[in-house]
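Course assignment 3, question 2. Fill in each field.
Student: A.L.
Task: Predict the tertiary structure for the chain below.
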Amino acid sequence: MTSGAQEIAAAFTWACLAELDAPKPGNVHVFAAGHRMTAEQFIASADAAAPAISAQGARVGTRIFAAVEATFAAVGANTNLGIILLCAPLAAAAQSAGADLRASLSKVLQDLDTDDADLAFRAIVRAAPAGLGHSERHDVYEPATVSLLQAMTEAADRDRIARQYATNFTDVFDIGLPLLEASSRRHAEQEWATLTVYLGFLSAFPDSHILRKFDKRAAERVRRTAAKHLAALQATKAPARLLPELLAWDGTMKAEGLNPGTSADLTVATLFAHRLRTILPSWRNSG
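Answer field:
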């Protein structure tokens, strides 16, 4: 592994672990397991997927498929499909010659081809995320006939992770990173800045993982509650005092089977993009 690949792998692992350190209601974190998964599984998954995510010169589809396979070899379950789908193109952009992460990412996404789609489809079927069904066009159970960007664009209206491909990761760059930067200035502890990003995504739009498993009513109820917690977090100078209420909501959501997995995946992608811009000096203050 080259030094650049090692840095990117370390950035990916850091992002995954930082996300776990935040008390994200409804999702797995170090304060509480949930949905028959533990933080330890996610830690092992991050370590397993990192080499594939950061493989120098690898196509995005290759990174996705290899990372999912490595995750299953390590933990035997789908713990990180959304994270992998989001972070693979970011890692590829980090290894391109461009000086601006967002501009480089656009080129990576435009360069995606049918082989990338085939490998991503195979990875999605292997991971079998909750609520995965068949679609009339570009079904993941069938050989790909379009590029991965075209397939993701087709799914963008129903899946927020697919929407990132279609919009050059607008949610990450225009919602996640500004929230992270502002909250990092307000809160010294990383977990509260991370939680701000998570609640920011969760309150900005209905979580598509909840939409797939439940319905719009459930997703909207979670969104409204997230907005209240975000407002409280942004208003306080002592965020630790909010922990009991956050964990109470966490327990309620997990008891109902509500898991805002998409918001958590977008949070990891935001942390990863932030760290990429930090470790690569030419990207500081850019894109």
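Instructor remarks: The chain is about 70% helix and 0% strand. The chain has two domains: 3-169+271-283, 175-256.
Grade: pending
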